[in-house]
Amino acid sequence: MLELLNVSTRVGNQQHIQDVSLQLHPGTLNVLLGATLSGKTTLMRLMAGLETPDTGEVRFNGVNVRGIPVQKRDVAMVYQQFINYPSLTVYENIASPLRVAGLDKATIKQRVHEAAELLRLTDYLQRLPADLSGGQQQRTALARALVKQAKLVLLDEPLANLDYKLREELRRELPGIFAKTGAILVYASTEPSEALLLGGNTATLHEGRLTQFGPAIEVFQRPVDLQTARIFSDPPLNTLLVSKQGAELRCDALVMTLPVDNADAAQLPDGQYTLAIRPWHLLLDVPPQLEKQTTEKQTTHARINAHVEVTEITGSETYVHVRLQGAQTQRWVALLHGVKDLPADSPVQLAIDPAQIYLFDSHGQRCLTPPQREDV
Amino acid sequence: MKSWNNKAWFLVLPVLLLVAFSAIIPLMTVVNYSVQDSFGNNEFYWVGLEWFKEVLESERFHNALMRNLLFSAIILLIEIPLGIAIALAMPRRGWGVSVCLVLMALPLLIPWNVVGTIWQVFARVDIGLLGYTLTQLGFDYNYTQDVVDAWITLIVMDVWHWTSLVVLLCYSGLVSIPQAYYQAARIDGASRWAVFRYIQLPKMRRVLVIAVLLRFMDSFMIYTEPFVVTGGGPGNATTFLSIDLVQMAIGQFDLGPAAAMSLIYFLIILLVSWVFYTVMTQQDADSAPGRGQP
Prior knowledge:
Chain A has 376 residues and is of the alpha+beta class.
């Protein structure tokens, strides 16, 4: 088990990691999720032992590892860049950690071939890294980490430099590749979708602080605070400052009745809140014929007027970026199914289902969560 | 259907003219001289390849060529490893970087004949700091009389003047290696030697090819510094091809043989450079396509 106890580092006046405590268990996949410069890499370097914390402790199986050199810590690391020895063949690259460890030839050969098989590199063992595609180069780096059979495997945005197809392919295989080793797997990523696709646990980082740690879906659905919700939302979370008066949420752009069936909502004191809603829970002004069929459901929907800024069409989905009427500085984005080609500056009305909103208090703490249903 | 637009030629014409006047026409003049004999009065006689044969068979040419090859070999053997070593020892960040870079660049900024003059004075036995001190310390040093001393002086001077070029090239290669490589090596538990052999050296290979080519060509064409320091002496001990060539063309006014010799000289440099380049990039050619390694 890897434990971080109140770990902090600072460089000059800059706090890099602030009071992070974390427990990672063998055989688990843990995603460090955060924007660039949020401290993911520093945290990994601390875990690896490439850096020592200024305060706090890093413990491995209960032992404080301060002062133990990196090469004795049983760690493997894979980077965003494809790091392989340029003048060695793929075989020699994979074998290199085993040679340093001083294993006998037969064992090395067997382990290299096993790893190569698992990462589908068997046909390329005699080639140099430069002759391989980016995906194969990164597979080689992964194989090097795998053969080492390290107890702690750190993957620092390993798929970031790969093209879309290869990224998806390798992401699907990754958890399986390391599953059998029983290692603690730590995976740094900037993409919320990656944390959900990989499964396992997610730790969200913001400016060197750990905001939440738990199973990915749990963190996604029940973020403890606004910051975590923001980190774990792509496209970005839509937010609006509102004031609550009784059962109503109000601001210049919006008047909305709180869902009556939500027990938490009834207990909230009046005051200022941040309303947040996921882009795919925003509905575009519904055509009349459809409205008739769903009248019952739609009645409670709050309406918000906006102007289209730009639409991005991916094919299966359309991202509509809008500015809200009555709150001109507020940009929102709606994620709609199918192709919706809306001209810029055209007025639209967005519908918000009160059952889907999050509310955060003035300290950013979550106080209202949408009920988790299977169909949302 | 292809349609040719002849106007395009006008766009390359300025370059063609420039290259013609700066390179092709002078070269052709030399070729012209090399196949003719003249007895003054602007009278020329066709002699074919006579001068080439004479130059290639002359002992004077062989000796000068051997001196050049020896000099270049020694220069490469000293400057390349020394340049790599200094580049490895240089700091990678902080104020030390700019200090080192400026210090390294200084010798490169000095005109060649000034370098020659500096060392000519520096090494003089009567008034030079180096020469005088060595003599006072009891060394039998005199570059104007002793062949070995003259060679040592020239080599030390060239190393002083040009090693920094190798250093700067190697340093640029070293700093372009991502930090992640060193981290990965640390995690692997690789030794300092392994880091050099398997990360730094392969990553520096491309700049090393350039360094070797530049240093070979420059040292093989060396003229100014030995001309100033030793004047080709003592005897003919430091008469390199370039010095010999100038003596032949201007001193003796043997235009034909001198022209033939300069063409041979040029072809030798071209040939050796090509061999160096081919050998040093061989590994690249073997592993042809995916060069875009980070």
